[in-house]
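Morning, I've got a small favour to ask if you have a moment. Here's the protein in full, and shout if anything looks odd to you:
***
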Amino acid sequence: MTAVAPTLPRVGDPAPDFTLASTAGADVTLSLLRGESNVVLAFFPLAFTSVCTAELCDFTQDLSQFEDVDAKVFGVSVDSVPALKAFQAKHDIGIDLLSDFKREVCRSYGTLMEDTFFSRRAYVVIDKAGIVRWTFTEAALADKRDNAELLTELGKLA
């Protein structure tokens, strides 16, 4: 019997709710953002790695463009909050990073690689009603989406 690879939530389904510790100091509960803003969840493997650093710095550089389409971007990894805070400070990352240290959210979103115990690089765009509108999982950990693609998907929600 072959194991089925976990998959991201289906487009059109409600996004699985969660509460995670944030580098901002307060927990983030996804369902509390309903009606307020669109959400981009950017699952990334590990802090302090080159592609993750470039990806999160790109989000910071383009933050005003995400704000223009009424979207909040959260980086999600299995790193601890202290590690994420150090990573954020070292690279002046301007988005909140969420710690899924217990790996529960990565499992519920289908991004956890059980053999390495960290997340695949994946993206989930959620509208203001809490519905998944777009998803993508990178084939290789060294790959990342261009923000223009995410911004295009968010633009479709207007």
In short: The first strand starts at residue 19 and ends at 22.
